[in-house]
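Quarterly update from the structural biology core.
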Amino acid sequence: MLAEIDADPNLGRAIWAILAEDERGSVLAARNADTLMATGSVRKLFTAALVAECEDLSAPIVTEVFLAGAPGANGVWNGSLVIAAKGDPTIGGRDEYESDRLRRFRPIAGELVRRGIRSLAEGVVVDVSSFEALTIGGAWKSDNLPFSYAAPIDAAAFNENAIAALIVPRGCGRPVVEVDPPWYTPKVEAGCNGEALEVLQSGAREIVVRGSIAELQRDTVFAAVRDPGESLGDAMRIALAESGIAAGAVSVRRTSPPGWTATPVVRVGAIESPPVGAMLDAVLAASSNLYSEMLFKRVSRHRGAASWDESLAIEHDFLVRRAGLEPGSFRFDDGCGLSVENVVTPRSTVALLRYLRTESASARFWESVLAKPGEEGTLRRRLPQFKGRLFAKTGTVDGVASLAGWVRRADGSIAYFAIFVNNHATAGRDVNRAIDRIVSALADP
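Predicted structure, tokenized:
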């Protein structure tokens, strides 16, 4: 199999690093097994392992909501509604796309109605002080930042920090643009000018669509929100308005609101996420960068404001002391794999896989959240012949393709494998097909 790759000039010029072992640790295939390789989203395997080690997988993330201030006359609350964001990536997200995006806000609105509150003098405050102020990965490429897969990472999120713009071109005339969430207004500056099409948030509740639509078919572009806290606060403001409560302005604060200790504070409810363990399906099978980064940062929340640096330090200690990885065999920069500075060896990746399946949470749990052929996730259309046998994590960034996991072989035994391809200059689908041929040879030798 490797000889075929070497003979193909479109594949052989890339750097291939591979390790596959059976359950006893015998090597089934190896090349550059101790070479540090860029990971792509295989990085998320390590993030998921850290989350499983540090969190109660059966517990939700709780976002508490308070009234700060004091009641006034005629239903006016002389203060604000404060959302104490704690890093929940699920609010208004994928589990609510086809239902009521605001459903988790409605009990809060109902409690305010019960208290006779009809307006908030100081609006909605989103407190994001549980996370550091840095919201963009230091090594993320600037041309990724407008897109939802590189949305800012903060303690708050709504709609997975994305704005979806459905663009329906009408020749070179003004296209039809439908926006979700619907409270964003589109400003259209697109035509047939030859410039690249882009969708950006241009104001608190406005997006701009600019560039050329000459070659565009009907398409949906997912833009990153500019301020996740503002987005969450806006969603709460809309939910309150639908219950007849005027919320006014939305503000985001990195420290507790001024006078917090002196101002009366009343807890009016909480927004609970699904269990943390259920979120690891979005990390591994669906490969969500947002879920990965928010859960990764949360690990260090007990050291002050949760941060990349502190979580990376906790992770390093876990991987060396608990998972048994060799120091120097990995270096990570973020929690999702978007940074090209994430590197690891195939040997350490296989060691982590073995740890997950035999020493961490049960193999059944990991097989429920990893990508699988024929099911929703990044392996849905790959390797269909191994449905029910293959459990893995894919990885793709520019010039990088990877796959790591385990597969039940024809004789019923398990093969652990890590395959990394760096510096390839061919179509990603061709590299993935070559990777899949290696997995096929491992599974059915």
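The chain has a mean pLDDT of 94.
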